[in-house]
Structure prediction request, 122 residues.
Amino acid sequence: MSAREVMERLADVIDGHRWDDLPSLLDPAFTCHYVHTGETFDADSWVRLNAEYPGFQNFRLEDCVAERERAVGRAHVTGMADGEQQHFEVATFITVRDGLIVDMTEVWTDVDQAAPEGTRVS
Prediction:
């Protein structure tokens, strides 16, 4: 699979809550780094994090750019917390080797943040 196909498959598997299929996309040497928290996960811990994440609903890939073994995707994620739906955006950067993700970096943010006063441009 190309890097684009792997990114699209990854999004489909996560959105479908098909956690048993997730490991088949990951190289044995897989690592994932979360820039926003400084955490790094191996394949088992990253799959477990996704499968057990409380309130997760959907992962919709909205954009993907790929070249050779690298792809980046931008996705909209929804989840429930305290009875309220929450919205997040995530940028996912992957490196693929032999059709499997060997390296991933993700940057998450919620979408309910307000721009600082005086910075908003109309």
User: Anything to note?
Assistant: Residues 3-110 form a domain with the Nuclear Transport Factor 2; Chain: A, fold (CATH 3.10.450.50).
